Amino acid sequence: MTNQLPGDTTLPSNKQELLELAQNCNLSGKYQVKDFFTKPSLSAYQISPKGDFLSFRKRNDEGKSDIYLLNRKTGEERLFIKEGDDVIRGYGWVNDDTLVFMQDNGGDENYHIFVQNIKEENYRDLTPFEKVRATISESLKDDSDHIIIEMNKDNPELFEPYKLNVHTGNLEKLYENIAGENPIAGFGFDKDGDLRCLVRIENGQDQAFYYNIDGEMVKIKHTEFGESFDLLEFDYQNDNKNIAFVRTTENRDKAIICRYDLRNNCELEEVFSHDIYDANDILLSRKRGYELDAITYNGAKPETIVISETFAKIKEELTALLGEENRLQIVDKDDDERYFIILSSSDRDIGTYYLFDRSEQKIQMLAELLPNLDRKDMSEMMPIEFTSRDGLTIHGYFSRPNNSKAKKLPMVVMVHGGPQGIRDSWCFNPDVQLLTSAGFAVLQVNFRISGGYGKSFLQAGFGQVGRKTMDDVEDGVQYVIDNGWVEPSKIAIYGASHGGFAVLRGLVKTPDLYACGIDYVGVSNLYTFMESIPPYWEIYRKMMYTIWYDPTDESQQEIMNEVSPLQNSEKITKPLFVVQGANDPRVNINEADQIVKNLRDRGVDVPYMVKYDEGHGFAKESNRLELYQCLVGFLQQHLG
Asked: Domains, the chain, ranges and CATH?
């Protein structure tokens, strides 16, 4: 008996049809698709806790990224973990001689946690459970034998925390998440692995924060949906163990970071706030007793606010060695803070890894990620700001081909996923750089409901997905047209997940605005989308109804019928390319199948790419290369 493939297998375009589409891709300049989407030869550097080993990913001849180890004392480099058929989604050091990594099955997002000791020949699956999703919650730097994970093993809808022995595989459940009216959505542990807080869902969408007071979980905070009260880390430098760093929008619009007394439920001191953007996170130094080093937030560009004198000195030393042209990120460090892994990158430079020896004040280049790409040829990601038709300030980015002499360019509107709480950010984006190298300008709009701009901006998009959110995108298009940057008759719309929905909605709502669209793992039918969510999203169903629309509310059904693309597919008259991963747990393949079948039944030609070893987006190199070859071919066919 063979396993049945997901979806309607008669619908995807055949190899010849996709090949013909790919052959339309004519990149006459210096770079080809492979230059942007071939995996880096070397990437993902980390250092072991004592600094004895470097670990990294190394591309093999099959386009997979294996994990290698470099013994820094002997200089010996060896293959440690071979990737195999499924993509390694992430990895890290647990202690000085043990690494863990995560894999799912063909993109189904039911992650397993694997472990391998550097003295062992083979890795072991520590969570060998079918249709169970396991994620790492805490690494427990002070406990080399254990990590804390969360799994939905006993109830597919609910996650529970376990202490996992990385040597024996022994699992100890730390708290029971009982199904009921107020399910637990999150657990908070301290550095010692003690459960200090938890968050429950109330009224189907609000959050209740519970804190462990004298062994009892006591409710100290109720937060309405769209507001935030997030424990970032405990303030271990404080003698009072109840003091924590909290990110909150309580009594304010933009999220701040403050010191908070959880036992007495009171804010003690504001640590950081910004007038325009939400605060993001904190950086602490375990070496220096968890001293607060810096605050981060995502503005027009990612920003780091230095707090400690030591961190200021480290930043000064790195700048002296590597310059100020790029953004310098500490991606890992040893426990003694002598050795640092640095990633130097920008919007025009995907990045270079360095090893910084702070004691010797020496810098060693480890690897350029894509050395064939010359930053001088890459496009600038220019922050833009405009006012929406109803008066909101909207931020975004505009990228144009570098050194282009054309005054009015063909343009691709790239719409981000989510939609809630997600945003486009300033960075090296291979999609953007491929498109600009092909001669297209790219517009990215952080429409209302995007994250990072305060709770009122987030909540302004609730119940407006596909309506005012799309108005914001359209206003962004008009902004760049009014500036004379693009040719109005040559505009395409492209996006993944919610962005794929926005493609279909845009072709329905404003059919004359776009010349064509590319729907990548996008929602086509709001009703079936909400019926096919993964089980662990079930506790968030009411939130989803608030963000989108409630199909059980008759008053909202009329809006859903107006906004849902499939119900209005007769208005789609422009060329459409649909891309889907067959194992997608978030947006079921039925979403893509429905819109393709509906349009084809009306005589519309829709190229349709399906990969049966992928999920919510393509991760395998060969699939990504084929996708982007076809994507550029489709755009060049319809935009010129």
From this structure: 46-179 (2.120.10.30), 192-307 (no CATH), 318-372 (no CATH), 379-639 (3.40.50.1820)
